[in-house]
Design brief:
It is a single chain. This protein is mainly α. The protein is 88% helix and 0% strand. The protein contains 4 helices and no strands. Helix 3 (67-87) runs antiparallel to helix 4 (94-113). The longest helix has 30 residues, at 2-31. It is globular and about 45 Å long. It starts with a helix and ends with a helix. The mean pLDDT is 87.
């Protein structure tokens, strides 16, 4: 029961962080020099990466049968990505960071639902 409460609290914090930063993210990307087209492409690439990597992480989770490793990997990479997002000097750096962030969130989401 203790693990379930901890996992629920972490999931809540993760989804709150994504929900809060989502609307502000477009303003941040614009301040780094991107136009609306680039902001839309960035969001599309991030969403497509999350969808495709969810399938891959699901397959890996079924093979490994170890959820805790995937949860920890996902959270660690997400923390690194959030730190890198705050340090990005221009919007060009956001593409690989957001792709890696989407892959990490997919790992955490799949493992938490398994």
């Amino acid at each position: 029961m203790k693990n379930l409460i901890l996992m629920t609290a972490i999931s809540f914090a993760l989804f709150m962080a994504r929900g809060i930063t989502g609307p502000i993210n477009s303003l941040y990307v614009e301040s780094l020099g991107a136009n609306y087209t680039i902001i839309g492409i960035l969001g599309t690439v991030t969403s497509l990466t999350a969808i495709l990597s969810s399938y891959l992480w699901g397959w890996i989770a079924d093979r490994l049968e170890r959820r805790k490793i995937l949860l920890l990997i996902g959270l660690l990479i997400l923390a690194i990505c959030f730190a890198l997002l705050s340090l990005a000097p221009s919007f060009h750096y956001l593409f690989p960071i957001n792709i890696l962030s989407a892959i990490a969130q997919a790992a955490y989401s799949v493992a938490s639902l398994a």
